[in-house]
Design brief:
By secondary structure, this protein is of the alpha/beta class. Helices cover about 30% and strands about 20% of the residues.
């Protein structure tokens, strides 16, 4: 698989990302009447991602919070369909389209790297892009001209296992592949508004301390035992939206991190952050 290159033709190692994908198809519907700019900051961050990269990816591997399988499973379709895995939203949001091609070659490479690391995997030729992919990618890569492959979470949501999966996939970064974990740094749908402010801030402060200001060894230890963090189970009653972070970090685990998006009042109270690993850019928040 050829590498991403700069305009001068030099090989470029791509960073890895942990991004928020919002709520359902939020960017394509009206914001709440009491918060008319609810989506603006997150949408602006996502729209700026492609231009912030050191080179255009040859392909993208996405680990979405919305796909869990007993073993890591890779999408192999050459032309993936759409999977509208949200409910109760306006009719027009079920007509969104993201026609990016898949990449059977990348899917095969992913499975080979996992196998070399002793990680058993499966493949799925029928899986379509879920909203953890097509909703943010319609903003990030709207031309849909970069092949996209999804990799599932492992259903046990074990953080150490997902760090190891990321570690196994790290060579992809030198092959023109952008690794993206798509989830949310805070994900408690039952806690919104002022009641969410302090617990989400405390968890976000811990996450920033862990990722930005800890040694590589301490960072691995802290994320592997994330349930010990302040308000961990308030921030993530179920960790499906946090575990994609482990894969993105695992693929750059000895390298520094950068905070590239932060919002302290998403939906009126959530502290939300996005991180980039491998070749940090200056913080934008």
């Amino acid at each position: 698989m050829s590498r991403a290159t700069t305009s001068g033709g030099n090989a470029t190692r791509l960073p890895t990302l942990f991004i928020p994908h919002g709520g359902g198809p939020c960017f394509f519907m009206d914001p709440p009447p009491n918060d008319p700019h609810a989506w603006d900051a997150m949408a602006a961050y996502l729209r700026g991602v492609a231009a912030s990269l050191p080179a255009k990816p040859r392909a993208i591997l996405v680990i979405s919070a919305h796909w869990e399988m007993p073993r890591p499973t890779v999408m192999t379709a050459a032309r993936p369909s759409m999977l509208f895995d949200y409910y109760g939203f306006p009719e027009h949001t079920y007509k969104l389209a993201y026609p990016a091609p898949g990449s059977p070659a990348l899917a095969s490479r992913v499975r080979a790297l996992l196998a070399a690391a002793g990680v058993a995997s499966d493949e799925d030729a029928a899986r379509g892009y879920d909203h953890g992919v097509f909703v943010p990618f319609l903003l990030m890569f709207p031309e849909a001209d970069v092949p996209v492959v999804q990799l599932s979470l492992r259903a046990d949501l074990d953080p150490a296992a997902h760090l190891a999966i990321g570690h196994a996939l790290a060579p992809l970064r030198d092959e023109g592949v952008l690794i993206v974990g798509s989830g949310s740094s805070f994900h408690n749908l039952g806690l919104r508004g002022p009641a969410a402010i302090e617990p989400s801030r405390r968890f976000d402060d811990w996450l920033q301390q862990t990722l930005l200001r800890s040694s590589a060894a301490d960072r691995r230890r802290r994320v592997a035992t994330w349930t010990h963090a302040p308000d961990a189970r308030i921030a993530h009653p179920r960790e499906d939206h946090l575990i994609p972070l482990m894969v993105a970090l695992g693929a750059a685990e000895e390298e520094p991190a950068a905070l590239v998006y932060h919002q302290g009042d998403f939906l009126g109270g959530w502290a939300m952050s996005s991180f980039r690993f491998g070749d940090p850019v200056p913080a934008t928040a």
